[in-house]
Amino acid sequence: MPLFILNIFLAAVLMVLTGSGSISVFFLGFALGYVILWVTSPLYPQTRYFKKLPKVLSLVLYFLKELLVSNLRVLWEVITPRHISRPGIIGVPLSARTDLEIFMVANLLSLTPGTLSVDLSEDRKILFVHVMFLEDAQAAKAGIKNGLEKRVLEVMQP
Known about the structure:
Layout: H1 3-18, H2 23-39, H3 49-79, E1 88-93, H4 99-111, E2 115-120, E3 126-131, H5 137-156
Antiparallel strand pairs: 1-3, 2-3
Helix pairs in contact: 1-2, 3-5, 4-5
């Protein structure tokens, strides 16, 4: 049984034992299950679970932070009478190569308010992104490459 499924099972067992259906008990059970599995990790064959899960959590937390910040920035643009947006389209050189990696980067960018994936070059090396607040094109490219794309590749690549 994959360790992730086993970890979810352990979290569900804790929910049943406590008689609680709350999400906080599930997350507590998941954390406890992770610790139990980590302590007993010499019993399992080679697994990437203990390296991948922290990277997945890093990606999720980074995306949620970007989502909150961009929502607040777009909200401020909408409710203030003075417009501070400087929209533009930039070409972000991609390190992502597989369809799934490119899909994840493009869609997570599009889910963030203020950015939208517009197109992918024919050679699949440049992702064109519409940015609502484009003060510095190089900084925006670096932010995407060193932020979202880096974390997606950490999760997706072995």
